[in-house]
Amino acid sequence: MTDCLFCKIVTKEIPATIVYETDRTVAFRDVNPQAPTHVLVIPKGHYENTAALAAADEGLADEVLKTAHAVAVQEGVADTGYRLVFNTGPQAGQTVFHVHGHVVGGRDLQWPPG
Ligand code: DGP
Questions:
Q1: SS3 content of the chain, % helix, strand, coil (to 5)
Q2: What integer pLDDT is reported at residue 35 of this predicted model?
Q3: How do residues 47-100 score in pLDDT, each as one tens digit?
Q4: Ligand 1 atom at minimum distance from 85 CA
Q5: According to CATH, what is the number of the domain 5-105?
Q6: Is residue 96 lining ligand 1, measured as CB closer than 6 Å?
Q7: Rounded to two decimals, what is the model's pTM?
Q8: CA of 21 relative to ligand 1 center, distance in Å
Q9: What ranges do the domains of the chain cover?
Q10: 98 is catalytic
Q11: Of 34, 75, 102, 103, whose CB neighbour count within 10 A is largest?
């Protein structure tokens, strides 16, 4: 999608700190981190939200999930604990409409979230 911010990170038109990549996914540091580890995991293809990702090609949602866990392992937060959050829709605070999972960890996290 031509004017999607995260599509431009995939094509490297916009710089980002990429920490992990597979054939169909990429993970990069959030520009406004909320915790010591705050990485966004996305499919390289454009899917607006979790509903679109769930309806995508077989295995893509699975690959996004596996990439998120691989990032947590790589960041050293898999054992201490981390949160994987997909804000979906305006009431959940989704601001970028290319589906992304936030991998957040490295500090105690409050529950319930705000
Ligand atoms: P959400 O509110 O769930 O749609 O989260 C969008 C996240 O995207 C937010 O935490 C900030 C991050 N973000 C926005 N623009 C950029 C950018 O240009 N680069 C990077 N690395 N992250 C961005």
A1: 25, 20, 50
A2: 98
A3: 999 999 999 988 999 999 999 999 999 999 999 999 999 999 989 999 999 999
A4: 3
A5: 3.30.428.10
A6: yes
A7: 0.98
A8: 18
A9: 5-105
A10: no
A11: 103
